[in-house]
Amino acid sequence: MMLSMPAGPKRFSWKNLYTGILEGLKVFAFYLAVLSLFRIFFIFWMSSYMGAGVGSHDILKAIWRGTRLSMQTAGALTLVSFVPGFVLHYVWPRWERKCVLALNGVLLLALSIFYVASFPFYRQFHANFNQMLFTGANDDLYALFVTMVQQYDLPVRLAGAIVLALGLLWLLRAFLKWDFLENLFDSVHMPRLVRWLGRLAFLYFTYIVVLLGIFGGSLGWQTAVNWENAGVTKDDFLNEAILDNVQAIYRAYNLNERMLACNGLDFTTDDIRVLAAKLANKPADTDDLDVYLTKEAQGAQVEKPKQVIVIISESFANWPLLDKYKDIPISHGMRSLIAEDDTDYCPTFLPNGASTVSAVTGVVTGFADANLYLTTMPESFKEPYPTASAPQMQKLGYDTNFWYAGPSTWERIGAFTQAQGFEHFYSRGDFGDVPGSVWGCEDEVLYEKVLAGLDADTPSFDVILNASNHSPYDLDLDAKGFDRESVREALPEDHQQDEELLKELGHYWYADRELAKFVKEVKEKCPDSLIVIVGDHADRYNIDKTPTTYERYGIPFIITGKGIHKGTLLKDSAGSQIDIMPTIYELIAPKGFSYMSVGSSLTRTNRQGVNYGFFITRQAIGKADTVPLVPESLDGGAAPEIDQQAMEDYINGVRSVSWWRPKYGPMLDETKLENR
Predict the structure, then answer these.
(1) Side-chain half-sphere of 182: how many Cα atoms within 13 Å?
(2) What pTM value is reported for the model?
(3) pLDDT tens-digit profile of 439-490?
(4) Which of 79, 269, 401, 490 is the Cys-Cys partner for 668 at CB 3.0 to 4.6 Å?
(5) How far apart, in whole angstroms, are the C-alpha atoms of residue 613 and residue 615?
């Protein structure tokens, strides 16, 4: 039996192409409208979960942000029926509409079920769909089913979802049958030129819609909205409502995959006991890791400051501070600060990992990067780890605050830092409508908010994470006063026309300037303050196309404030982000103060650093996973000597303890690895 098809010329006519694409656009518009209306009703019906002080402006911001994000969802849902429908449109047009309605009927039923379920889910977990979906899938399914029937009226809700889906399918069918637009560009009374211009405009409009669907309401990845950066309001409920149910399930899937990937490292409990003992310089006579992690401060080295501030600066590499690059005018602020009498600087310092989240976990928990995604692990949300910075600073009498330029939903940073003991968390949603990129508000805005929140008479520990020095590098540098031509002239000749590099260097210049300005203002307002500055990571851009390992990965460690002087840090100090807090404890804590850490102080003992892939000393840097270790000189000269066994023990000690303790707890017990 032969399939009936349109005649050749008609089958590939403009009219056929136009109507096929138009049907896809209608489905996209329908899904976008449905998802947006779902969100609006959810916010209205669940409005009692909104916090105090939420206004109409915040609600409108959430609705608009959510609509942009749902363009991506609508695009994905549209593809499910558009691809087979478009094929049938050409080869078997009689079945096109039936196929489109059937596929969308299934999708609308699923959407309706998710939507109806999201209301009791939020009431139970105070969140849109999250990892509990996957936790529940591993639970007693029969008991779960009985609970859903008895407590959550499953039959009634399911019936309501079916009725909702049937109503939506009827509306979609009516919308697709509405043929006002089908003949828009085929009027015989329309001049040919107008017809062709209209067709070109339609194709361009389709292209724009495709981009919006791919990039979540944006025309490129630089400003794309996704589930991680969507939460821009000051209210947790609204941030959750921004995610449509499909995006929330996608978030849950991503976070669950990250958690499942946390396999850690391959050490036996005997290995860890010996390595932890060497790390702590104690006998290997206990299976309690916390014994090896416990230290006693040797006595304050400075008068106890009122404010302790740790600034984690986005992509703030160390290479612009090297003498080799002193003539490139992008680091004047930090160079001037380092030259001050009340400042010391360690140029041999490593980030905890290759991304910002590793820097956050290093400072917040005190653990090194050990193939554990701490911001997704359930263990991280039960209670603060004993090495966590905030509770230990509270023991020293400080209020604890975490300030982030971006949305609280990024990497679950708001929930994570508070679960790890920070009393207060502030993010872009708390700052109102402020200038910035998709990653966060501008540095000057963040610092202004922090400065306003500091009280010279109230002891506080503040961790600040900024975001301006981050792609897409979209600051208006000219408006900020960046002298582009001076930087251009200082570059090697073969780099002077590299406009992208100039833009990147301009963002470093801006981060440096605002950081120096903030430090000065803090010292004026809070003269009894101690400030630590580090980069979150490097390895984003260099002037050299083949930079040395040191130039590529090194970040600065700068400490400044009352009582600090040249020589506060060991002259041969080196370290990584897990050594920041021990350095602070040993500077300010009284003799005998008990604290817990994996790292150690750069003022007392620490002369090496290690991270996910590298080690560093004052003379050498190298990959941490080669056997034997191959040290490179910092300046590309002759390779220096290192104590191979001592460095291997240090690397393995830091990694093994940072793997076992957050994942399995304090006691070394081989049986915990049986089902790994």
Answers:
(1) 10
(2) 0.78
(3) 899 999 999 999 999 999 999 999 999 999 988 888 999 999 999 999 999 9
(4) 269
(5) 7
